[in-house]
Write a structure and sequence with these properties.
The chain is of the alpha+beta class and about 130 residues long. It has 3 helices and 6 strands; from the N terminus they run βαββαβββα. The chain starts with a strand and ends with a helix.
């Protein structure tokens, strides 16, 4: 299954806090497709603090950085649309492509090295977790 890496705490917010927009500088042409959410390994304290403040403005309290999973696939979402700065959601940021997300669900975490762009997580790893 295909995956995208998302930095924490944004990956957590997608799966657990109903963050329904992923902001990207490039469009996706795979509407109505399921994608795994990979929590990227890297997250600086400054990035975390900025994200924490933004999430608080959305009424979401995020876990401490130390407790957030990183370097793992943590869930699955469906991408239902992609528009440039036109989605009516507080999660959307100006001058970005807004990937509209639905049906987030948690999975048993899969340790995996993320990549830029959309990448493939081998089916045998996914099946191991599902079994």
């Amino acid at each position: 299954m295909k995956a995208i890496s998302v930095r924490q705490p944004w990956a957590w917010a997608i799966i657990y806090a109903l963050k329904d927009i992923e902001n990207r500088g490039w469009p996706i042409h795979y509407s109505l497709s399921r994608r795994q959410i990979h929590a990227a390994k890297t997250c600086t304290k400054k990035e975390y603090q900025l994200a924490k403040e933004f999430c608080q403005s959305m009424g979401v309290v995020i876990p401490e950085l130390i407790s957030l999973r990183r370097g793992q696939v943590i869930g699955i979402v469906t991408i239902v649309d992609c528009r440039f700065s036109q989605v009516a959601s507080g999660w959307g940021m100006p001058e970005q492509y807004h990937w509209q997300l639905e049906n987030p669900r948690e999975i048993t975490p899969i340790p995996y090295i993320g990549q830029l762009g959309i990448f493939e997580v081998p089916d045998d790893l996914v099946m191991e977790v599902a079994a």
